[in-house]
Amino acid sequence: MKASESQSRKPRESRGFTLLELVIVMVLIGLAMAGAITLFISNSAERRLRNISGDIELLAKRARAVAMVQQTPYAITFTAHEASLGPLVEAGLQTSERQMKQQREDEAIADGSMESRFLPVRDSLSFEEMELSIRRWGAVNWLPMLRQDPLVWRFDPKGMCEPMGVKLEYPDGWIELEFHPLTAGIRDRTMEARR
Description:
9 strands, single chain
């Protein structure tokens, strides 16, 4: 009898978590997820600045590549809220003038009166909510693009371009990009995004 009495006096071992412990863990996981989602949403300024810097870099690399392939100087023309890629001879044209020229080329190609080994490549990038500033090679200060005067960044057929700095300011942050003259890639990037 003593053996059975000693077995009955042993406390029962717990075999799992209580309902209260499970609820506490679920609440903590929910709070952690809510914090992570809030962090991602609040950091959209950084994501937007990174995206636009990537788009500018792609436009610059495309300008360099097209200039080398077509053996024609190309340019990116910066205005207050836009960057436009096109042949250097079109660099000073307004948007409406470029569109008219492209429409005439399209009509001439459709008629068969114009044949070209390479058609001009044109593209544009818009930064409506951002303020654009440019720093040319050797300059110390940033030149804000407040007026409609275009600023031209030239890409030569030999693959060289002017080392240029581009600064974009957004209400919640800014990014500065320095471009390499041989690759047209971003050489240095400085960014500040407020949360």
